[in-house]
Amino acid sequence: MHEWSLAEAILEGLTSLMKQEGMKKVSEVEILYGEMMELELDILKFALEELSKETPMKDTKFIFSEERASFRCNSCGYRWNFEQAHSSLSEELGIRELAGERESPIHFIPELAQALMRCPNCGSRDFEIESGKGIRISRIVFEG
Ligand SMILES: [Zn+2]
């Protein structure tokens, strides 16, 4: 249920930003979230709605956009995406993905990826997660 703590963190961040900027209302907030987080958007939206009820953010419109994950090998410079990462990790762990079944027994978490994944091109474990890992506020529209 990390969606609830994320919602809390988002609202806290907005509150301190409003104080800092001397604003009374936030009409719109755009949130960019990484594909690797596998967020339950419905839960996050619900949590934001519930937690903002008694705050100045109760009428704030939250817009979500997904940031695609990308990985880059430090040895050969090869770049790959989330789908490739997912299947190479499943291979690494010996997990057979059944035909037509997207569901994998392991939840794809960044820490696990970092520890187990290899570059699909050269097999190196020395790679970086370039994007798609975190969550951030990309745009805020203040009012008043
Ligand atoms: Zn490589």
UniProtKB/TrEMBL annotation:
The record, for Pfam families, names:
HypA (PF01155)
Q: Where does Zn(2+) bind?
A: 73, 76, 119, 122
Alphabetized GO MF terms: nickel cation binding; zinc ion binding
Q: Which segments does the entry list as coiled coil? A: none
This protein's UniProt keywords: Metal-binding, Nickel, Zinc
Mention one GO biological process in which this protein takes part, according to its record.
protein maturation
Annotated residues for binding of Ni(2+): 2
Q: What does this protein do?
A: Involved in the maturation of [NiFe] hydrogenases. Required for nickel insertion into the metal center of the hydrogenase.
UniProt lists the family membership as follows: Belongs to the HypA/HybF family.
**Could you tell me which NCBIfam families the record lists for this protein?**
PRK03824.1
Protein name as it appears in the record: Hydrogenase maturation factor HypA
Give the organism the record lists.
Korarchaeum cryptofilum (strain OPF8)
At the highest ranks, the source species' classification is: Archaea, Thermoproteota, Candidatus Korarchaeia, Candidatus Korarchaeales, Candidatus Korarchaeaceae
